[in-house]
Design brief:
Chain lengths: 114, 115
């Protein structure tokens, strides 16, 4: 079945550590996204990528980094510079053709700083 | 400025009641898409509907219906005869012609349907 896989589902990080969240899609979508969700604040865009080897900052990119070396993969690294990383992280993808701009979402990763 | 506003933070209804979730958007583009997504407790966002700016026809899908009014920049979502399984957070979203690959989400409305 086609879809988006995020791993791990739950992640615990010690303060000062970098952690990487995985996002893989087999939908052959060009665009991929990372969103952060905090209670009562909806979804905020961290980074997005429209093609391989290219990505743009979203609204809250500080303290995060991404790479897009392969079409199907868009990992997100939460660095120690991110001061409040505890949140729910959602990865998504979309395409211009086919589903015409609809975004498909993964099941999310809940990151907790301990 | 907020591009998508969902003023209702949380709504509680009793099963079988009808409920309307409001969405107001802001854009200068004449071409854009509007979306509704459902987020159940599991966390994954489930796509419900996409509407383009040139199609103001209301849509009905089972117990769900959507009212798109460009004059008031609103795209409201109504659930008829609500059920407990409808309990979730619902998000409205917008994408614009200058970058259809960028989605702006509202803050979401949490719907509680009580038996």
């Amino acid at each position: 079945d086609g879809g988006i896989t995020q791993s791990p589902k739950y992640l615990f990080r010690k303060e000062g550590q970098n952690v990487t969240l995985s996002c893989e899609q087999n939908l052959n979508h060009d665009a991929m996204y990372w969103y952060r969700q905090d209670p009562g604040q909806g979804l905020r865009l961290i980074y997005y990528s429209q093609i391989v080897n290219d990505f743009q900052k979203g609204d809250i990119a500080e303290g995060y980094s991404v790479s897009r070396e392969k079409k199907e993969s868009f990992p997100l690294t939460v660095t120690s510079a991110q001061k409040n990383p505890t949140a729910f992280y959602l990865c998504a993808s979309s395409n211009k053709q086919g589903q015409r701009y609809r975004a498909f979402f993964g099941q999310g990763t809940r990151l907790t700083v301990v | 400025a907020q591009k998508v506003t969902q003023a209702q933070t949380e709504i509680s209804v009793v099963e079988k009641e009808d409920v309307t979730l409001d969405c107001v958007y802001e854009t200068r583009d004449t071409t854009y898409y509007l979306f509704w997504y459902k987020q159940p407790p599991s966390g994954e966002l489930v796509f419900l509907i996409r509407r383009n700016s040139f199609d103001e026809q209301n849509e009905i899908s089972g117990r769900y219906s959507w009212n798109f009014q460009k004059s008031t920049s609103s795209f409201n979502f109504t659930i008829t005869a609500s059920q407990v399984v409808d309990s979730a957070v619902y998000f409205c979203a917008l994408s614009e012609a200058d970058n259809f690959n960028k989605f702006y989400f509202g803050s979401g409305t949490k719907l509680n349907v009580k038996p």
